[in-house]
């Protein structure tokens, strides 16, 4: 394995825009949930005339679909990802809408047959209900409670009861309060392994909510300790949690 300084310096300078994790190839692995979200998303996009993807990142997941509806829109709040999504999806006729996190969606009521999202930052159930057409569907893969908590606690110490509002039962109740009917809810716990300290530096720069105040300088002692642990054990193991959720806006009687 390469020296600590080389691994960390490389990861600290690497690009983290977009929602692709190709930089981690050979350096980290993550077990995927059994349902195959990208495939299921592509199937649904091919069956509707209008769809909206929320928190699309750089548009990488949506771009896997071979066919889009006649009206396809995506939203994203981080400016570098907005530009990346425009470059990737714009040539295929997708409208990319910059948004402010926590703000209203820039669409009239009842606009879309399908609203989707892979790992939304914080699902706004009333807004999802509002922009769905009567009889429309919400289909998404959400991050679950205590996802990758082993890594967060390595840097931050114990985080007792840290569900971050992502418990599927809590989200089910919130969706119902917004007027949506839950049609599907499945959960998974998936093994992750990091094979060098550079992989951890890169992922903490990308997924900033895992260690919100992360910097190489601030956490040098922890990073060196992690580097020694990986060299001794071969990897650092954590677990992601995911849930697949489907919901529908009831049709108007």
From TrEMBL:
Molecular function (Gene Ontology), one example: S-adenosylmethionine-dependent methyltransferase activity
Record domain Methyltransferase type: where: 52-139
Keyword check for Phosphoprotein: no
Keywords (A to Z) from UniProt: Methyltransferase, Transferase
Pfam families per UniProt: Methyltransf_11 (PF08241)
InterPro entries, per the entry: 23S_rRNA_MeTrnsfrase_RlmA, Methyltransf_11, SAM-dependent_MTases_sf
Keyword Transferase: yes
GO biological process, alphabetically ordered: methylation
UniProt superkingdom: Bacteria
PANTHER family the record matches: METHYLTRANSFERASE, METHYLTRANSFERASE TYPE 11 DOMAIN-CONTAINING PROTEIN
Name of the protein in question: SAM-dependent methyltransferase
Species for this entry: Microlunatus parietis
């Amino acid at each position: 394995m390469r020296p600590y300084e080389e691994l960390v310096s490389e990861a600290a300078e690497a690009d983290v825009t977009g929602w692709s994790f190709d930089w981690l190839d050979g350096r980290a692995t993550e077990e995927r949930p059994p349902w195959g979200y990208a495939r299921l998303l592509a199937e649904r996009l091919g069956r509707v005339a209008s769809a909206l993807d929320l928190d699309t990142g750089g548009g990488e997941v949506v771009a896997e679909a071979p066919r889009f509806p006649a009206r396809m829109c995506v939203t994203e709040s981080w400016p570098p990802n907005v530009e990346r999504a425009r470059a990737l999806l714009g040539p295929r006729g997708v409208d990319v809408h910059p948004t402010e996190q926590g703000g209203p969606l820039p669409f009239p009521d009842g606009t879309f047959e399908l609203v989707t999202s892979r790992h939304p930052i914080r699902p706004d159930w009333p807004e999802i209900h509002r922009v769905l057409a009567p009889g429309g569907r919400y289909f998404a893969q959400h991050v679950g409670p205590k996802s990758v908590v082993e890594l967060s606690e390595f840097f931050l110490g114990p985080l007792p009861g840290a569900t971050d509002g992502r418990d599927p039962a809590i989200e089910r109740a919130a969706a119902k309060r917004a007027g949506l009917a839950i049609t599907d809810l499945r959960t998974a716990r998936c093994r992750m392994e990091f094979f060098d300290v550079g992989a951890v530096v890169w992922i903490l720069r990308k997924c900033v909510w895992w260690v919100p105040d992360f910097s190489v300088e601030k956490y040098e002692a922890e990073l060196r300790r992690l580097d020694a642990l990986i060299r001794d054990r071969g990897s650092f193991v954590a677990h992601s949690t995911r849930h697949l959720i489907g919901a529908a806006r009831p049709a108007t009687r």
